[in-house]
Amino acid sequence: MKTTLALLGAGGKMGCRLTDNLKDNPDFRVHYIEISPAGLENLAARGVSATPREEALAEADAVILALPDKLIGGITAEIVPALRPGAMVIGLDPAAAYAEVMPIRDDLTYFVTHPCHPPLFADDHPADETTDWFGGKSQPQSVVCALHHGPEEDYAKGEAIARALFAPILRMHRVTVEQMAILEPAVVESTGIGCIMVWKQALDRAIEMGVPKEAAWDFVMGHIRIELAIVFGFAGFPFSDGAKKAVEQNMTKIFRDDWMQVLELPSIRESVRDITGAASKGN
After folding, report:
1. Is there a single domain that holds both residue 87 and residue 158?
2. How does pLDDT run across 121-174, given as a tens digit for each residue?
3. Nearest-angstrom CA–CA distance, 31 and 20
């Protein structure tokens, strides 16, 4: 017997990903529920059509909530009474369940699942002594170069040497020494390592709070990858409204409002003087 699924929000961002995975799966009979014109177009492009919600819910063994967090409370209040006993309600994010915004029926099952996303560090390619973490062996890398002092014609000579030092090369970039100092230490060390260390502390704390270590690791490693892709514009889609709200509520609890002073030139000069020991020498 095939399991009958009702996919709410089937034509949305998450819904389309699930539709792509479910539409040709022989183990499921799927009702796609969608009301927005854009969502209906997305379904049509995939060769599937929407089912009226009442019809889909009446037959569903499980209902999947591919919906924005802020809509789940209201929509589940409408659909839960229509589900047959023994049906399962599947959430794709813990927020609605944890906030207790869904009506609970004793004769229904409620299930929450969330993808970890592809990991930043893959288990099928474990690191060993041959792993090229820094570039210059097997992994192409870009290089920044600055002519600090000397005739302009010497820049090309220096860049040629740098190409040999750091090959294989992806791209070569010419910057000033000051611009290089803005990038390191200010951006990638003072800011970047600090943020990553905070993230690691949060992961450690989650494990201390009882989250299984391997589940926490997979969840965080996958989310690092996708969140970097979204923030830096590679993914081609935005964060969810719920994720945006979480950041808005907690950004100032984690970071000082004036944290960007780290990137002010006086702070950078002080940092490099401390790093080099120049400050202690009075230079």
Report:
1. no
2. 877 777 888 889 889 889 999 999 999 999 999 999 999 999 998 999 999 999
3. 13
pLDDT of 279 reads 66
- pTM for this predicted structure: 0.85
Mean pLDDT in residue range 246-269 = 93
pLDDT digits (tens, 9 = 90+) for 58-71: 999 999 999 998 89
Q: Give the HSE-up count for residue 75: Cα atoms under 13 Å, Cβ half-sphere.
A: 22
**Average pLDDT score over residue span 2-31:** 95
- With a CB cutoff of 8 Å and minimum separation 6, the contacts of 31 are 4, 5, 6, 7, 51, 55, 56, 59, 60
The residue ranges of DSSP E strands in 93-133, in sequence order, are 109-112
Tell me how far apart the 2 most distant CA atoms of the chain are, in Å: 82
The residue range of the domain holding 237 is 177-281
Half-sphere exposure of 89 (CA within 13 A, CB side): 27
Distance CA 22, CA 19 (A): 5
**Chain position carrying tokens 């009301």:** 35
Q: How many helices (H) and strands (E) does the chain have?
A: 12, 7
HEC sequence for 200-236: HHHHHHHHHCCCCHHHHHHHHHHHHHHHHHHHCCCCC
Q: Tell me: do 184 and 274 sit in the same domain.
A: yes
Separation CA 90–CA 50 (nearest Å):
19
Domain count, the chain: 3
- Within 13 Å, how many C-alpha atoms sit on residue 271's CB side? 19
Secondary structure class of 169 (helix, strand, coil): strand
User: Is 9 in the same domain as 70?
Assistant: yes
